[in-house]
């Protein structure tokens, strides 16, 4: 488990208090916007390099990309170092961050609650509960009747990886270890440990193209056991199994009159 945020100091402080043992990481989109604001002349040149670094699966690939960044603007490299590679780079993350690289879901929630921000705190929280409750219920319903072995998004990833595995050559080293050759490069796959030297198998926790090529060679038809259980419908359903119970009507609250009578609005400014 981890928390992805926009590096806002107040949010980071709250995360440390509420989730003291949970690491937090930077949203790569917000970090890049910060880089653009500080180094405007380099942003067009470095955009692709930055996102490739953030999403890199191997440290050697990351280091090569960072060397190119250094050639373009050494100050940008220093800025990213100060931010902490482990906070925004997938391959340097202290926990398996997987595919969660941005805080887009939080931005989506903010967009849905724009009008509700004008309400009092209690009314705003009720709007949040209604929104989350409806999403919660819908997600639980979808997960309950899905017939796929994996969630839809992860099934698509598996299909894409399978399509990439058709033009590879492999050489077995043992029952579980294979060398896979793709475009002149050699990758080592270990099915027993569920790892590949490309980094994708162990970080995405779903067979990469090289692993799928090995599984095909071994006549394995069902590749789902090599995927993490978190991608399977049962796990997805469990994330939504606890319903969000509505609050009772305000007239039924058991609270001091001065508390009920007071109306508190959110701050006017961020």
Task: State the gist of this model.
The chain has 270 residues and is α+β, with helices and mostly antiparallel strands.
Please describe what this structure looks like.
With 270 residues, the protein is α+β, with helices and mostly antiparallel strands. It has 3 domains: 3-88, no CATH class; 113-145; 152-231, no CATH class. It has 13 helices and 6 strands. The chain has helices spanning 9-18, 28-38, 43-55, 59-72, 74-83, 85-88, 104-112, 121-145, 152-164, 200-205, 209-217, 233-238, 257-261; strands at 3-5, 24-26, 169-172, 177-182, 185-190, 195-196. α2 (28-38) runs antiparallel to α3 (43-55) and α4 packs across α5.
**Low-confidence runs (pLDDT<50, min 5 residues)?**
none
Encode the helix/strand succession as letters.
Answer: EHEHHHHHHHHEEEEHHHH
**How many DSSP H or I helices?**
13
Secondary structure category: alpha+beta
Q: How many independent structural domains?
A: 3
Portion in strands: 5-15%
What is the helical fraction, as a range of percent? 40-55%
Largest sheet: 4 strands, antiparallel
Mean pLDDT score: 88
Radius of gyration: 23 Å
Please give the number of β-strands: 6
First-residue to last-residue Cα separation: 28 Å
Spatially, the strands of the biggest sheet line up as 3-4-5-6
Overall geometric form = flat
């Amino acid at each position: 488990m981890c928390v992805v945020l926009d590096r806002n100091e107040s949010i980071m402080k709250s995360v440390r208090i509420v989730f003291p043992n949970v690491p937090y990481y930077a949203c790569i989109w917000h970090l890049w916007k910060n880089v653009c604001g500080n180094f405007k002349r380099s942003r067009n040149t470095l955009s692709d390099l930055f996102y490739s670094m953030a999403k890199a699966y191997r440290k050697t690939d990351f280091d090569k990309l960072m060397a190119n960044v250094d050639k373009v603007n050494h100050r940008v490299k220093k800025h990213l170092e100060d931010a902490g590679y482990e906070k925004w780079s997938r391959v340097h993350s202290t926990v398996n961050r997987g595919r969660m690289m941005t805080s887009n879901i939080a931005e989506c929630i903010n967009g849905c609650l724009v009008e509700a921000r004008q309400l009092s705190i209690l009314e705003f929280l009720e709007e949040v509960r209604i929104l989350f409750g409806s999403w919660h219920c819908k997600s639980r319903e979808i997960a309950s009747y899905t017939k796929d072995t994996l969630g839809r998004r992860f099934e698509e990833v598996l299909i894409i990886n399978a399509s990439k595995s058709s033009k590879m050559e492999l050489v077995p080293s043992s029952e579980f270890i294979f060398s896979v050759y793709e475009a002149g490069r050699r990758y080592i796959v270990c099915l027993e440990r569920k790892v590949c030297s490309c980094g994708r198998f162990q970080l995405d926790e779903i067979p990469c193209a090289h692993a799928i090529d090995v599984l095909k060679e071994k006549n394995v038809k069902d590749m789902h056991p090599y995927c993490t259980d978190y991608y399977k419908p049962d796990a997805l359903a469990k994330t939504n199994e606890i319903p969000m119970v509505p609050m009772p009507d305000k007239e039924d609250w058991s609270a001091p009159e001065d508390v009920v009578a007071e109306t508190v609005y959110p701050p006017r400014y961020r």
